[in-house]
Amino acid sequence: MFKLPKKFPLLPRKKNADKSYYGHALVIAGSRGMTGAAILASRAALEAGSGLVTLGISKSLLPIAAKTIPEVMQLGLPETGQASLSYAGYSEIVKFIHKSKINGLLIGPGLSRHAETAHLVRKLVRSLSVTTVLDADGINSFRGRANALLSHAQPLVVTPHQKEFERLFSEKWPNQKTERIKLAKRLSKFYDTVLVLKGRGTLVVGRGKCYVNSTGNPGMAKGGSGDVLAGMITAFVCQKLDPFLASCWAVYLHGKAADLAVKERGELSLLASDIVRFLPKAFRWSSSAGRATVL
């Protein structure tokens, strides 16, 4: 039995630190009709403590992002005819990552399933050395190509819900939690990834350990919740938590924020943006009283 620290390890902050100390997150996300996912993930990364956040998004969608979250910087990238990211943007992304000294990379929220975009995602995962969180359409880019994950060049966190899990691994999602844990441990070891299996009692598996989450509520079963979680994991990685611990704390605090928000909003009306709004309260609570357990 391994216990995470009773107090959230990223608080309190050092009094003499500046934004560079807390890392620079790059969020590769969004496409026509799905800019909301990119915005939620980027905002969550900021609220979860990243010193800097840049959103890499199709050039034509830049005005929407810039208007919505002024604290997030934008990287306009080449796009397909459907305003999803084009493979032609690969070299620009690589150059930006090296020039800006990116500490954590999130790929996936709202990217679309365009074939050219998926090709770009697979190339990035195969060639970049920065710790990467693969979420949503980032995961879908490997549908039927799970073995391509074996060549990932960086510490990798993969965050599927049930449907994404089954599409990616061609494995049935076990209904029994013990069987799900056993399968997740096997896949995590084989692909050398941290797996975050989202749903009731979210599992985080990595390094041969499994964290079973106890926070959260049914109000979270709504679009955008996963985008918020992915942004949080990326932010914690940027602040020097290793990918497994970053994922455990993010899952725990994501659920805690939702538990605080649901008291005001109710399960029916809870929104992903409410989870982001209640993150400050969750962080204050956890810095004095929080705890989590890894089995």
Description:
By secondary structure, the protein is an alpha/beta fold. The chain contains eleven helices and eleven strands. The protein has a nine-stranded mixed sheet, with helices on both faces. Helix 2 (62-68) links the parallel strand 3 and strand 4 (73-77). The chain starts with a strand and ends with a strand.
CATH topology: UDP-N-acetylmuramoyl-L-alanine:D-glutamate ligase
Shape: globular
H/E series = EEHEHEHEHEHEHHEEEHHHHE
Helix content: 40-55%
Low-pLDDT parts are: none
Number of DSSP E strands: 11
Largest sheet: 9 strands, mixed
Ends apart, CA distance between termini = 5 Å
Approximately what portion of the residues adopt beta-strand conformation? 5-15%
Question: In the CATH classification, which architecture applies?
Answer: 3-Layer(aba) Sandwich
Radius of gyration: 18 Å
Q: How many domains, as an integer?
A: 1
* CATH homologous superfamily (4th level) name: Ribokinase
Tally of helical segments:
11
* Class from secondary-structure proportions: alpha/beta
